[in-house]
Amino acid sequence: MIMFYSLQIEEAGKINGQYTNKSANHIIDEKLKDLDKYTSKKFIAIFKVNVGLRKSNPDAYTPMLISIGPYHKKNPQLGSMEKYKLMYLRRFLQRKRGLDVEHCITEIEKLKGIALKCYDDIENLDNDIVDKFSEILLLDGCFVVEFIRECSGMKPNREDKIISTNCMINLVLRDLLLLENQLPFFVLTKLQYMTKEVDEVPITKLVKETFFSILPKMAHASYLEREGDVKCIKHLLQLVHMSSHPSYYNSLWHVQDLSLKIISKDQDYQTWHANMPNVTELCEAGVRFSKVGNTYSDLEDRTTLFDIKFENGRMRMPCFEVDDVTETLLRNLIAYEQQTCDVLPKHFSDFAVFMDYLID
């Protein structure tokens, strides 16, 4: 390793094959010059999914229809949705008299610096993407805000839906909850505020109502009731995640500004995964299984994905519908948990580990 790094320093000291007079210290100082700008994790909230998670199913983390934000902007297969972004931008501008693109860009420019820091690996973004970042935030942000409004029945009178087919709607909903396909939530909040109607509900509630239909087994009432400081919400996926906790969550945890503090003696949370028997072994040992709740969405059913109980030799587990979006959503929620250091407890990761042991 030392020999390899020395070779790197030696090669860095060459210009057009000729050695320079720079010392090793000078060369390393130049390499470290902008390191803080690229390695600070203070603002990073929108990560690229790491190789370890991605390799088992790369498609689960890749947009199928629309690119939001910078990571997949260069994907030519997603270019057909650009015209839809323009349609939603036009609708956005028509909501307020006198509102134009220049004014919107001016407002977004104020957020550009901090928004760019929300993304991981920004030093490897193409220069043209960085140069046009404000335009990307505006165009993609207007799409997200207006699409969510449209799904909530807030399209202008006498106008048709811009995206009307169930197939496209479901694909857009899927893509908007990918970890790599996020916008900083404060950008969405700003855009909604710029064109907000007097009686329009907060965007947090619009988001929850829009995405509830694709969530696997979430109790409708408790999902919609959970609120937090909007200033602490990082992106759409995080909002859905913080709203999707076990039904007993409120009795075990205090939620303050979306920071979770467990009520325990040492204030430390650790998840321990002990080896457990699989279903066959449990059945042979006399354990019986029964389902809890309904398979399909039901507003009266308050059972959640995490309501798993073992009592008197019987394992009670919630049943839920599995469709094309289920695996993608669960994988991205798990990726968010695994790559975000302040998410505790990691409910979706724990659920996946439990099911892995059970199914074996």
TrEMBL record:
<dbReference type="Pfam" id="PF03140">
    <property type="entry name" value="DUF247"/>
</dbReference>
<dbReference type="InterPro" id="IPR004158">
    <property type="entry name" value="DUF247_pln"/>
</dbReference>
<protein>
    <submittedName>
        <fullName>Uncharacterized protein</fullName>
    </submittedName>
</protein>
